[in-house]
Amino acid sequence: MKYITRELERKFLSMNSVFKAIMVTGARQVGKSTMLKKLAEKEDRTIVTMDNFRDRELARSDPKLFFQMYKPPILIDEVQKAPELFETIKMMCDETEECGMFWLTGSESKKMLKEARESMAGRVCILKMYSLSQREKLGLCDVEELDFELSKLLSRQKQFPENNIISVYHQIWRGGMPGTIHMNEEQLQAYYESYIDTYIMRDAVDDNGISDTTGFRKALRACASFAGNLLNYSDIAAAANVSVATAKEWVKILQTMGLIFLLEPFSNNELKRLVKTPKLYFCDTGLCAYLSMWTSADTLMNGAASGHYFENYVVGEFLRTFEYSPRKVNMTFYRDTNQKEIDIVIEREGKLYPIEIKKATNPEKKCIRSFGLLEKSSLEVSNGGIVCMTDTVFPIDEKNVLIPCNII
Question: Is domain 8-128 annotated with CATH 3.40.50.300?
Answer without folding.
Answer: yes
